[in-house]
Amino acid sequence: MGHLLPIGRESLKKGNMKARIQVANHALHPMLVVFPLGLLATSVAWDICRLATHNPAWGAIALWTIVAGVIGGLLAAVPGFLDWLAIPNDTRAKSVGTLHMILNLVVVGLFVVSLIARSQAPGGYSGAGFAHMVWGWIGVAIALVSAWLGGELVERLGISVHEGANANAPSSLEGRGRARGRGVGIHREA
């Protein structure tokens, strides 16, 4: 499904460093990361439902949402780490990527702490209160910062942006051919 691509410093200077693992000519990491982000953020909604209604079913739903989010986060980290390894040292992209990775690991760690705290709650996971949940809520706040850094890597630093990207580029499923007609450049702030 995926394949490894050799990445060099020249590719990064052009702003088109490709992801190391791709599926259908798209980077795998951003495809996977939406699942843990969505699951972990949604667990906060289930927590609020649990606190507002005192219905233990919401605690159980939050638990399994967090478990799935943590597993998804660890799976998404693998292609993200491989992409990070390809970024040349001594670049802003490497520094931003390092912080992005560390924050994502902190987010997963906070949700694991939340799971442990919930297991210690009177009544177990379903009886967890705010003090058991707050670790994950802090994790969601940190995830927002980390997600912004991921956007910075792509949108500002050009990591994983295909060479020749423009508003009229052909579908990535069409292969490596040129766009039909005139390419329309994408406006980028200097």
Explain how this protein is built.
The structure is a single chain. The protein has one domain (26-160). The protein contains five helices and two strands. With 190 residues, the protein is mainly α. Strands 1-2 form a two-stranded antiparallel sheet.
List the helices and strands and how they pair.
Blueprint: H1 9-13, E1 22-23, E2 26-27, H2 28-53, H3 56-86, H4 92-119, H5 130-156
Helix pairs in contact: 2-3, 2-5, 3-4, 4-5
Label this structure with key terms.
5 helices, two-stranded antiparallel ribbon, elongated, 190 residues
The figure for the number of domains is 1
Number of helices: 5
Kindly name the structural category.
mainly alpha
Secondary-structure element string: HEEHHHH
In this structure, how is the largest beta sheet organized? Answer: 2 strands, antiparallel
Query: Hey, roughly how much beta strand do the residues contain?
Result: under 5%
Provide the gyration radius in Å.
20 Å
Given as residue ranges, the uncertain stretches (5+ residues, pLDDT < 50) are: 1-12, 177-185
* Net shape: elongated
The overall strand count is 2
Q: Which strand order do you get reading across the main beta sheet?
A: 1-2
Percent helix, as a range, is 55-70%
Average pLDDT score: 85
What is the distance, rounded to the nearest whole angstrom, between the alpha carbons of the first and last residues?
36 Å
